[in-house]
Design a protein that fits this description.
717 residues; 27 strands; transaminase activity; elongated; Rossmann fold; 7-stranded parallel beta sheet; pyridoxal phosphate; 3 domains; single chain; Aspartate Aminotransferase, domain 1
């Protein structure tokens, strides 16, 4: 007896085959999504796994002798609903399963193919050697999978593809959308038997129980009898559709036969099953007439109200599963999850890092200096200090400016904690000013209202890569004698009017974290328009000493150094700079791709009820580091966190940028009132960041938009 893994085990054929395999004494692992119901009864040798074959645990193949791959988006109409899904299930996932089965030592792989591979060729009964002419996505996937399986075959891994005729009959997973079953159902329910066109199209038919017998014979047939890459037709009888209608009319003489419908099926083929019969002794035990009577009896035993239930109609059920959110049991938009962010790293970066490793100089050195010079040139600034993080750059800026205890720094609450943390680290007081509800950037009016005699600096954050109103902020700073330090973590390459961000204030800090538009893995940059501040920041970046390691240990370097003032360990090493050196020349390309993706999101999501799109200022260059949507809670019955869970269930990685800092425990414990900043408070419960990065394809963007639409549409008030 064998250990057999069956995919599609709960389907029309699987629900008949699995009990027969158990009766034969085999042990069965039954894999299926069971969207159409739990069709298999418990059995001591049956192990049921509820899974999609695209994501099933391949560890289930351990010690398996035979795989019977029935799982498919089955029949031609269902396959047309979502071609990408059909190809992924019927072809790619089946091939991946076969590859894993061969690696696991499985000895035989039996694939459920279809006679539909012949397309339209009814001149004579077709043998397995006849030309193939698939007319549908479904049939095309079967041809491609047959070819791949033949290429995988070895003497220890034998493959068999059974080209089944159109099935009919009764199964625990009843189907009323197969030709024989459909005509019987319609004759009984509607008193009408509809024939497409003139009904002369040929079709081979096979009772589901006879199909199960054919698969059992594939399990039992010795290897030496199987031809290499075996492909067999399996058929009960060939009938023209008009002949089928006549047989149904015999059972239902009162039913009216109609023909010449607008829908004309181009498929027409007669099939010869002699080769399989000769090899295995297969003989069908059921005629089409038997099946008509059998289906009639099954329908009579059912509640007529149940005849139209989606579980009996594959296209209807598959369409429902596609539209139902995955979190509620539907099929996800993506079975291979799309990460929220992925850096674009090329061969140049890899080679440069390797060169650094081989050079013997890993810390701050010539490549860091080169990267600083490249950044200064790109931004059009005089001074650029490379750091080990954007946080370090912000901290250096505050420290170099002499901001400390007793001083206040105004910043936005919609930001990463680092923005406010560094204010705390220098001993100053963080003062939050509310944000503009549409851009989520700091509101200049709120900044003005927050200025006191103790205010020393304003720290705007260019949210998502869109510049704040730097004219208004600059005017306020000039009027009140304040320094502006920009948190430009998202905005490397952004413009305010004609000026690059970095030219618009005294100091600006950038981040080169792994998810940023330009990455060094970890890293940052502080740009400064003042010579004295620049020198102090550079000294503070490395302990406060007068010479870095390169100037101490390089040929001709000075051995001695001096401690100028206590500093920090914020220097960027050459290992990080090696990545940045090759990222920077590609930045314009990266930003252009992000912009195209953001534009596509705008178009695809514009009409989704309950979804607010990000606002873009005119006259600025947005770097599109993030794409942040906002949920309209008056239109949706789902909150933001559940919305995120639902998108992740669809295979979409998402984030939240950000939950306002004034709502975080640290600040609440120090007297912050959630209602003090209403725009930030409200946004914190509504915003969701969608994936946006150059490595995404247009199809990836469309998948994300489809998932957002699907979840939002399913949760309208």
């Amino acid at each position: 007896m064998c250990k057999i893994l069956v995919t599609g085990a709960g389907g029309f054929l699987g629900a008949v085959l699995v009990p027969q395999l158990l009766t034969d004494g085999h042990t069965v692992t039954a894999v299926d999504t069971y969207w159409f119901g739990d069709t298999l009864a418990d059995h001591p040798r049956l192990d049921i796994h509820r899974a999609d074959m695209r994501t099933m645990d391949l560890g289930l193949l351990t010690d398996v002798d035979v795989v019977i791959a029935l799982a498919a988006i089955s029949n031609d109409p269902a396959g047309q609903l979502d071609p990408v899904w059909t190809i992924e299930v019927n072809q790619r996932a089946t091939i991946r399963l076969a590859e894993a089965a061969r690696a696991a030592g499985v000895r035989r792989f039996v694939h459920a193919s279809s006679c539909s591979v012949y397309g339209s060729n009814d001149t004579m009964p077709l043998t397995e050697d006849a030309p193939l002419g698939p007319l549908t996505i479904y049939a095309g996937t079967k041809v491609s999978t047959e070819t791949a399986l033949r290429n995988l075959e070895t003497s220890l891994f034998r493959t068999v593809s059974l080209r089944k005729a159109t099935l009919f009959g009764v199964s625990p997973r009843m189907r009323l959308d197969l030709a024989v079953n459909t005509m019987t159902h319609h004759a009984m329910a509607r008193g009408r038997i509809a024939v497409d066109g003139d009904g002369r199209q040929w079709r081979p038919f096979l009772h589901v129980a006879d199909a199960a017998t054919a698969y059992r014979l594939c399990v039992e047939t010795p290897d030496e009898l199987l031809p290499d890459g075996a492909v067999f037709n399996v058929v009960g009888e060939n009938l023209a559709i008009c002949e089928l209608a006549a047989l149904v009319a015999v059972e239902f003489p009162a039913a009216v036969v109609t023909s010449g419908t607008e829908r004309v099926d181009a498929r027409s083929y007669r099939v010869d099953g002699a080769r399989f019969a000769a090899l295995t002794g297969f003989r069908p035990a059921h005629t089409v007439a038997d099946g008509i009577r059998e289906v009639r009896a099954a329908l009579e035993a059912m509640d007529p109200d149940d005849w139209e239930h989606p579980r009996h109609h594959t296209v209807t059920m598959i369409d429902r599963v596609r539209k139902l959110p995955a979190i509620d049991g539907g099929a996800p938009v993506r079975w291979k999850p799309l990460p929220f962010a992925v850096p674009t790293i090329g061969r140049e970066e890899e080679n440069e890092v390797l060169a650094v490793l081989r050079s013997g100089w890993l810390t701050t050195g010539p490549r860091t200096k080169q990267f600083e010079a490249m950044c200064a040139d790109y931004l059009g600034v005089e001074h650029a200090v490379a750091t080990n993080s954007g946080t370090g750059a912000l901290h250096l800026a505050l420290a170099a400016a002499g901001i400390g205890p007793g001083d206040e720094v105004i910043t936005t609450p919609i930001t990463w904690p680092a923005t406010a943390n560094v204010i705390h680290h220098v001993g100053a007081t963080t003062v939050f000013a509310d944000v503009e509800p549409d851009t989520l950037n700091i509101d200049p009016a709120a900044v003005k209202a927050a200025i006191t005699a103790r205010t020393k600096a304003v720290m705007p954050v260019h949210m998502a890569g869109q510049p704040c109103d730097m004219d208004a902020i600059g005017t306020l700073a000039a009027d009140h004698g304040l320094i502006v330090i920009e948190d430009a973590a998202h905005a490397f390459g952004a413009h305010w009017g004609e000026k690059m961000i970095g030219q618009t204030s005294t100091m600006a800090a950038f981040s080169f974290y792994a998810t940023k538009n330009l990455t060094t893995g970890e890293g940052g940059l502080l740009v400064i328009d003042d010579d004295e501040l620049a020198e102090r920041a550079r000294v503070l970046s490395l302990h406060g000493i007068s010479k870095d390691a390169w100037r101490r240990y390089a040929p001709g370097g000075a051995v001695h150094w001096e401690l100028i003032e206590p500093g920090f360990k914020y220097n960027m090493p050459d290992l990080a700079a090696a990545i940045g050196i090759h990222q920077l020349p590609r930045l314009e390309e990266f930003i252009a791709t992000r912009t195209r993706h953001a534009d596509l999101y705008d178009r695809l999501l514009a009409d989704v009820p309950g979804i607010g799109l990000p606002t873009r200022r005119v006259g600025v260059r947005h770097t599109h580091h993030l794409y942040v949507i906002a949920l309209d809670q008056d239109r949706l019955v789902i909150d933001r966190d559940r919305f995120i869970e639902a998108l992740r269930a669809e295979g979409i990685g998402v984030g939240v940028h950000f939950i306002s800092l004034h709502l975080q425990p640290y600040h609440l414990d120090r007297g912050m009132d959630p209602d003090m900043l209403p725009a930030a408070r409200d946004a914190s419960a509504r915003i969701v960041s969608l994936p946006l990065y150059p490595a995404m394809t247009e199809n990836d963007v469309r998948d994300v938009a489809d998932a957002v639409r699907k979840v939002a549409s399913a949760h309208q008030r």
